[in-house]
Design goal:
alpha+beta, 2 domains, nine-stranded antiparallel β-sheet, four-stranded antiparallel β-sheet, 17 strands, about 20% helix
Length: about 280
């Protein structure tokens, strides 16, 4: 085991990232007047954000930091590729995108992780995606943080898997095995025209919360929670907003064998925008 891997293992045991994440979520949701405005202005400067790309460019109107953080992008800047089978649900950077082989997904060179563990551990949940495809997209703090539906679909169920809140940046992805199956995540299962589709919202360090439009803010808990929506007929069109993160994190999309091919733009390290083709 490398020195970096050893250090990360020690950090996993000793660093109270969940506590820091909890405190971050509380502070950034509080109206702090001039302090809030200062934080927003510093954030814009640090990450070179063009406020004119968003529906509300008036930063003085945001009462909390998180109100600004989950600002809505102008729809005309994110046209939906109607010819694609499915589109990217977020703005971000492609972490990995490839085939799911023998129930394993690539995390980084030399590191993979379990499909079953990612989805919560039930064989019936992972079976539709065996030998299928996946796309993992990392959202940096600078990115637009709302999550959209990649394809027309009906919500079947969600599985909330409690976990840690390790950073999901390049260093941890490259050196911490099973990162995505250690962190908190919400797995959303949909029925679509191409079969089963899953979208996994992965929490991370300082992610104040994971939110969905159908169920609000995900409540952190100690045990896995499964919720069925099969009888509620909740449907979304491609491009509809379905949730958001507060601070940077990761979205992983999964679909079955022979349900469509990855778009050529989905290669590791490539920036991608919401609405661009993901499955062709």
């Amino acid at each position: 085991m490398s020195l970096i891997s050893t250090a990360l293992k020690i950090s996993e045991a000793l660093t109270p990232l969940s506590t820091l994440t909890y405190l971050s979520s509380k502070i950034t949701d509080v109206p702090l007047g001039k302090v809030t405005q200062f934080l927003i202005k510093e954030f814009i400067k640090t990450y070179k954000i063009d406020v004119n790309d968003y529906e509300n460019p008036d930063i003085s109107s945001y009462k909390t930091f998180n109100e600004f953080f989950i600002r809505k992008v102008r729809p005309d800047l994110r046209p939906i590729d109607e010819k694609a089978i499915a589109v990217s649900p977020v703005d971000g950077t492609v972490g990995q995108a490839d085939k799911i082989i023998a129930g394993r997904l690539i995390q980084a060179k030399g590191i993979d992780y379990s499909l079953s563990a990612l989805l919560g551990g039930k064989p019936d949940d992972s079976a539709p995606f065996e030998d299928g495809d996946f796309a993992c997209i990392y959202l940096s703090p600078a990115n637009y943080h709302r999550i959209h539906m990649p394809i027309d679909g009906k919500l079947v169920k969600t599985v909330h898997v409690p976990g840690k809140h390790f950073p999901v940046g390049h260093k941890n992805i490259s050196y911490m095995p099973d990162l995505y199956t250690k962190n908190e995540r919400l797995v959303c299962f949909f029925d679509t025209a191409i079969g089963s589709f899953a979208l996994v919202m992965v929490g991370a360090a300082l992610v104040g919360s994971i939110n969905t439009v159908w169920d609000g803010t995900v409540v952190r808990r100690k045990n896995i929670e499964e919720k069925s929506f099969i009888d509620k007929d909740i449907r979304y069109k491609k491009g509809d907003e379905i949730g958001h993160f507060k601070y940077g994190s990761t979205v992983i999309c999964l679909w079955g064998k022979d349900q469509g091919n990855l778009a050529p733009e989905f290669v590791p390290g490539n920036p991608i925008l919401f609405g661009k083709a993901m499955i062709k």
